């Protein structure tokens, strides 16, 4: 145990963020560099070394959290990094982007603020990179088997790295011009600078993983032909079909999916564009959707110089404390203020968009909304609450409905879908097509980064067993496992 009295003597402290007026002028990560090091060992010492560490249940990766908390408390960063990498291929991604269900399941959280697990994690991995402790791990021998991984998001990268280290020759196919999937073009730079992805890709290249960008399976390469070329295929193409809003006026100019808007801002930061073709500069911006993607749109609009930013959510405003029907250690629905929300803008809950209004040139100018409430489990509009707000740029951030079926991948492989429209798979993450497996959101549906990495690791075991007859790779989850919620 780190500090037997740590949870009694030390209060919770989290990473400091840079002043709002400073950070909205750039695209760097919002946190003060180095602000965690003076406090993080004591924060790790708040870990109680529980007899049953429920943080393990909250995290699908099965992270060895009490162990690396103990090493972080003792400032043994090398050993902490070893424990961290034992279950997670990319802790610098999760340490920045995961909503930390492990903290919601922390035993200390029953009656005190939970351990800052996420902050400890990101400190450990950043120290490991700085010390040169993150090195390539190429296989000792090659199996002679080949694997194609379709998609380079967290699930695809995790599967590829596991299979490469198992000795298989792996090629990752990505339809975008750079590797990373939504990590690259869905996550804004201010949440995670892309240098973190770049150095992981270099590590994977040094281990033997090959990358093929600007190649879309189903369009550029026939999926059936790809199957014949490789001994196995892992589909990790994500759930990239955005949920639309079929309201009158949807066809007006200036209304875009979040994933049409966000990648362009990232391409500016990559140096591909001078200015984004879709920009919030000088405009009244409305973001429809109250989740993390919506918050990403809010933060991006601030940095582009929006005249105003309003975020709409159809659900009621969550409370600051757990509801009785969301007891510990489940993941509660709480009112969350992200760094983007700290930077300004208005959040409106319990409203629904009725229609959009444009000018004579077909550009959106106004969004009409109405208040809603739940009655007997049904969503009903409240008469007399209609109003309109200025909207010269509208981003739709209402989630995703499934994997892309327009590119021909599903049809060309001959894949079966489940009742939710995801690619169906068995207990080994195998589809109905022999040798074809699926990992991540393409099989699970829209989910969190920790679930994507866990899926990639588990699917890699299924592939390895298919190719080699047996596997020693870990499989932290089953395809049917779900988050600890009620």
TrEMBL record:
* Record keywords: 4Fe-4S, Amino-acid biosynthesis, Glutamate biosynthesis, Iron, Iron-sulfur, Metal-binding, NADP, Oxidoreductase
* Catalysed reactions, semicolon-separated: 2 L-glutamate + NADP(+) = L-glutamine + 2-oxoglutarate + NADPH + H(+)
Swiss-Prot/TrEMBL cofactor(s): [4Fe-4S] cluster
What Gene3D superfamilies does the entry give? Alpha-helical ferredoxin, FAD/NAD(P)-binding domain
What is the designated name of this protein? Glutamate synthase [NADPH] small chain
Q: Which PANTHER family match?
A: GLUTAMATE SYNTHASE [NADPH] SMALL CHAIN (PTHR43100:SF1)
**GO BP terms:** glutamate biosynthetic process
Q: Which organism is it from?
A: Streptomyces violaceusniger
Domain (Dihydroprymidine dehydrogenase) spans 39-130
Tell me which InterPro entries the record gives.
DPD_II, FAD/NAD-bd_sf, FAD/NAD-binding_dom, Glut_synth_ssu1, Glutamate_Synthase, Helical_ferredxn
Q: Which NCBIfam families match?
A: GOGAT_sm_gam
- Give one GO molecular function term: 4 iron, 4 sulfur cluster binding
**Which Pfam families does the annotation name?**
Fer4_20, Pyr_redox_2
Q: Where is the FAD/NAD(P)-binding domain?
A: 146-456
Task: Quote the pathway field.
Answer: Amino-acid biosynthesis; L-glutamate biosynthesis via GLT pathway; L-glutamate from 2-oxoglutarate and L-glutamine (NADP(+) route): step 1/1
| EC numbers on record | 1.4.1.13
């Amino acid at each position: 145990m780190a500090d037997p009295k740590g949870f009694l003597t030390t209060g919770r402290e989290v990473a400091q963020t840079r002043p709002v007026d400073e950070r909205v002028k750039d695209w760097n990560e919002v946190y003060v560099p180095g602000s965690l090091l003076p406090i993080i060992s004591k924060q790790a010492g708040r870990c109680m070394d529980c007899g049953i560490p429920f943080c393990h249940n909250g995290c699908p990766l099965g992270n060895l959290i009490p162990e690396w908390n103990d090493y972080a408390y003792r400032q043994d960063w090398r050993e902490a990094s070893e424990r961290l990498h034992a279950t997670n291929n990319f802790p610098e991604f999760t340490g920045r982007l995961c909503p930390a269900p492990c903290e919601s399941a922390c035993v200390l959280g029953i009656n005190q603020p939970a351990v800052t697990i996420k902050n400890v994690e990101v400190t450990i991995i950043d120290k490991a990179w700085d010390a040169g402790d993150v090195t390539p791990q190429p296989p000792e021998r090659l199996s002679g088997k080949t694997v194609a991984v379709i998609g380079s998001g967290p699930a695809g990268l995790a599967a590829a790295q596991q299979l490469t280290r198992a000795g298989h020759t792996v090629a990752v196919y990505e339809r975008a011009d750079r590797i990373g999937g939504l990590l690259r073009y869905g996550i804004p730079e201010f949440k995670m600078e892309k240098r973190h992805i770049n150095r992981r890709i270099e590590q994977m290249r040094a281990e033997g993983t090959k990358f093929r960008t600007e190649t879309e399976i189903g369009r550029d390469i026939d999926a059936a032909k790809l199957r014949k070329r490789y001994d196995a295929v892992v589909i990790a193409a994500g759930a990239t079909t955005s949920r639309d809003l079929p309201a009158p006026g949807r066809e007006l100019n200036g209304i875009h999916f979040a994933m049409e808007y966000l990648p362009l801002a990232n391409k500016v930061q990559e140096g591909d564009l001078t200015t984004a073709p879709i920009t919030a500069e000088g405009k009244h911006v409305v973001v429809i959707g109250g989740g993390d993607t919506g918050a990403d749109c809010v933060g991006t609009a601030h940095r582009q110089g929006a005249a105003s930013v309003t975020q709409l959510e159809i659900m009621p405003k969550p409370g600051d404390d757990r509801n009785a029907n969301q007891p510990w250690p489940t993941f509660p629905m709480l009112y969350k203020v992200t760094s983007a929300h700290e930077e300004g803008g208005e959040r409106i809950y319990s409203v629904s968009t009725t229609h959009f209004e444009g000018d004579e040139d077909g550009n959106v100018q106004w969004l009409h909304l109405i208040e809603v409430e739940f009655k007997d489990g049904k969503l009903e509009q409240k008469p007399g609450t209609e109003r309109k707000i200025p909207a010269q740029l509208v981003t739709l951030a209402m989630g995703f409905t499934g994997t892309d079926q327009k590119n021909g991948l599903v049809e060309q492989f001959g894949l079966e879908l489940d009742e939710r429209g995801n690619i169906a798979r068995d207990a080994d993450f195998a589809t109905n097509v022999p040798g074809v497996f699926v990992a991540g959101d393409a099989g699970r549906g829209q989910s969190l980064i920790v679930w994507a990495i866990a899926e990639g690791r588990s699917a890699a075991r299924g592939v390895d067993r298919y190719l080699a007859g047996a596997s020693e790779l870990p499989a932290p989850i089953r395809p049917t496992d779900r988050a600890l919620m009620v």
